[in-house]
């Protein structure tokens, strides 16, 4: 029976889609992880068993989710996806159970996306799998003819040729490094011959003047080598810094081209850890790779000189180096497993630290300092256990390598000393050989360090691949329009939308709505009715599952994302304030904000009093690293940001809910003038902000139940009337 295919989960939430990918590969089809993520409805919590089941059926599997006893699972066709430890998914696969034989008392073979292919005895298996009353949850899958008709995905991505392009950009500096390498190696090569001549000629003939000459020569060689090394280090610093910036810039460019839905399914720590992966790749390219090339050059030169002095010692050195290499390579698989675990734990730790710092106010308000600290300490305990495993593996590897290396040195020392006693080698020759052996030991160690860092870089490249293989918002093979039609009215036609995640209820159900050009449309309703979702669809954060969004007669899908958002001014509930000056927070897209536009935006948003009360005025730094501002002040700056942009479309989501009544009244009056000639969509709970709208749309559970003007809707005494009567103190 062939070995069961295995893929490692790149992120902690990917166990479900990865399990499905392994099962599909077992049956002969290769599906990309991103495709399986999308159809499984992955979100920040991962996927549910229902999501995996639905995704499996979409690619042609017949599925059945059930609670089974161990005996029932033993009679089930494998592979099957198991719910593992209450928070994870793994695969129980058939290898190596013979056909027709039960599995009672045998080992269970598990493909765990987080750990690898693992063998469990029955007691260990039950401990992880059983959930309650001696039952465990399993998803049974069997391929249908439709599965074999599916087309698999090509998974070609980035390889090392992609990374070497970064080095190629600086080929002139790399050539200079190699020139330095050649000069440095030649200078080093002369040293053993000078050492031998001091002993064999200078000491034996008692010629002190000769020794002076040789020592002066050695000093000059030393100074020359040191100068070459210094120059080489400066060149290497220039290359590594430039490459690091290039790799990170390219990563950020790719990241910023991704759709907003990507960021909704990724933990902050996962993205930040990928940025740390860039550093490992840069270090491998500039430090490890180039240094190893230098070392290999020295290795070839000095082993040649060693063979010239003594062939037997050369073969002993060669044999011990092969053993040393095999010993280190034997640990690579375990190192890979530990590296994936390190990534997961580090990502969780990073997310935890960000959460602790950003959530400190809520932590203190709710007296949960101890609980949150314990959560953090639990992660540190996990990091400590991981560090112990890493240290243990490193020490075992180091002990074996040290034994092989030192054993080789002792044997060579004995053979060289014996050769001197037997008269086959001079004392100077012995000293030269010892120097050469010392010089070739270092390249061997560097070569093996290179193998380990090559593995690390490959792992980082795999994780990098995941980002680079994602489709951009604006795909290069599609032509987008960069102009709006004459009729700029927006229409939603039979629009339905459900957030990613199996079993989620539709947020919008068959919405049809016209948003006339130059008019103000208000959307009201209870929390969770789908108001903000409509704005996110208009801003193209997501794509509706059914229906169409149009601007005039043009589908919104045909218009460039950047061009469309450039025409939109937005204030979202969770708008972000950057750690920068007030001026740059208002004119975020301009390196030097326009003073006239700034003054107009400040006037409309009524933040003159805030700015005048600050010592540096518009140049006062706010945000996480600057002056603290209230929720109302934040909202006024966000309104000023939208006004500064002077867009054709304005989308406000609870834009005034943090303002006091006086500020709200002034700002709404200012906005009335600003809104003239613009297409405006306002979402609000505070209904006083929408009563002057040209059309008010009432949503309930994703369906439009009423629409009309404020006067029409209050007169009809429907759902809108019930929403507003307490706020506006309307009569019965």
Task: Describe the protein.
- The structure is a single chain.
- About 1% of the residues have low confidence.
- The chain is an alpha+beta fold and 732 residues long.
- The chain is globular and about 120 Å long.
- It has 25 helices and 19 strands.
- Strands 1, 2, 3, 4, 5, 6 and 7 form a 7-stranded antiparallel beta sheet that branches.
Number of distinct beta strands? 19
How far the N terminus sits from the C terminus, by CA atoms, comes to: 78 Å
Q: Whole-number radius of gyration?
A: 34 Å
Helix/sheet category: alpha+beta
So what's the overall shape?
Answer: globular
Q: Give the integer mean of the pLDDT values.
A: 78
């Amino acid at each position: 029976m062939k070995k069961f295919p295995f893929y490692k989960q790149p992120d902690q939430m990917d166990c479900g889609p990865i399990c499905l990918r392994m099962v599909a590969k077992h049956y002969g089809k290769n599906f990309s992880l991103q495709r399986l993520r999308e159809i499984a409805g992955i979100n920040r919590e991962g996927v549910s068993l229902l999501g995996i089941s639905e995704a499996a059926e979409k690619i042609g599997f017949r599925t059945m989710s059930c609670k089974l006893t161990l005996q029932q699972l033993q009679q089930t066709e494998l592979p099957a996806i198991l719910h593992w430890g209450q928070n994870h998914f793994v695969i129980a696969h058939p290898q190596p159970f013979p056909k027709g034989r039960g599995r009672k008392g045998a080992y269970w073979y598990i493909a765990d996306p987080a750990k690898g292919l693992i063998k469990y005895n029955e007691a260990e298996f039950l401990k992880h799998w059983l959930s309650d009353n001696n039952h465990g949850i399993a998803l049974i899958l069997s391929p249908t003819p439709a599965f074999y008709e599916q087309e698999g995905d090509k998974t070609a991505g980035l390889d090392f040729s992609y990374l070497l392009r970064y080095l190629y950009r600086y080929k002139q500096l790399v050539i200079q490094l190699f020139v330095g390498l050649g000069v440095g190696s030649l200078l080093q090569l002369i040293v053993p011959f000078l050492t031998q001549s001091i002993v064999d000629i200078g000491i034996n003939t008692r010629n002190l003047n000769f020794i002076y000459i040789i020592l002066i020569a050695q000093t000059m060689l030393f100074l020359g080598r040191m100068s070459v090394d210094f120059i080489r280090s400066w060149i290497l610093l220039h290359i590594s810094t430039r490459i690091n910036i290039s790799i990170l810039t390219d990563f950020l460019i790719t990241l910023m081209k991704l759709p907003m839905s990507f960021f909704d399914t990724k933990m902050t720590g996962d993205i930040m850890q990928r940025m740390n992966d860039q550093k490992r790749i840069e270090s491998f390219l500039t430090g490890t790779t180039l240094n190893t090339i230098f070392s290999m050059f020295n290795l070839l030169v000095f082993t040649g000189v060693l063979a010239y002095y003594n062939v037997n010692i050369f073969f002993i050195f060669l044999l011990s180096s092969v053993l040393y290499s095999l010993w280190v390579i034997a640990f690579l698989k375990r190192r890979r497993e530990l590296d994936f675990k390190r990534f997961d734990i580090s990502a969780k730790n990073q997310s935890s630290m960000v959460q602790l710092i950003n959530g400190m106010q809520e932590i203190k308000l709710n007296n949960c300092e101890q609980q949150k600290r314990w959560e953090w300490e639990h992660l540190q305990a996990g990091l400590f256990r991981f560090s112990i495993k890493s240290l243990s593996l490193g020490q075992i590897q180091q002990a074996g390598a040290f034994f092989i290396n030192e054993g080789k040195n002792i044997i060579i020392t004995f053979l060289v000393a014996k050769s001197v006693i037997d008269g086959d080698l001079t004392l100077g020759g012995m000293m030269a050989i010892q120097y050469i052996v010392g010089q070739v030991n270092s390249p061997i160690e560097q070569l093996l360090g290179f193998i380990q860092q090559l593995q690390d870089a490959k792992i980082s490249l795999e994780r990098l691949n995941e980002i680079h293989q994602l489709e951009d918002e604006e795909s290069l093979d599609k032509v987008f329009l960069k102009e709006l039609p004459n009729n700029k009215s927006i229409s939603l036609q039979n629009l339905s939308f459900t957030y990613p995640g199996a079993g989620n209820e539709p947020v919008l159900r068959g919405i049809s709505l016209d948003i006339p050009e130059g008019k103000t449309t208000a959307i009201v309703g209870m929390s969770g009715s789908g108001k903000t979702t409509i704005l996110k669809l208009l801003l193209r954060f997501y794509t509706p599952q059914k229906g169409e969004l149009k601007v005039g007669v043009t589908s919104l899908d045909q218009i460039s994302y950047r061009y469309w958002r450039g025409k939109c001014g937005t204030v979202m509930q969770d708008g972000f304030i950057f750690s920068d000056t007030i001026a740059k927070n208002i004119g975020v897209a301009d390196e030097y904000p326009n003073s006239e536009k700034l003054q107009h935006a400040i006037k409309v948003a009524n933040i003159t009093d805030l700015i005048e009360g600050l010592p540096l005025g518009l140049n006062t730094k706010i945000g996480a690293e600057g002056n603290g501002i209230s929720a109302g002040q934040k909202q006024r700056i966000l309104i000023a940001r939208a006004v500064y942009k002077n867009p054709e479309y304005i989308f406000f989501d609870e834009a005034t809910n943090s303002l006091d009544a006086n500020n709200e009244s002034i700002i709404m009056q200012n906005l009335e003038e600003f809104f003239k000639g613009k297409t405006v969509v306002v979402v609000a709970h505070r209904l006083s902000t929408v009563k002057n709208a040209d059309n008010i749309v009432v949503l309930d559970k994703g369906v439009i139940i009423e629409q009309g003007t404020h006067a029409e809707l209050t007169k009809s005494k429907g759902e809108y009337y019930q929403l507003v009567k307490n706020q506006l103190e309307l009569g019965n």
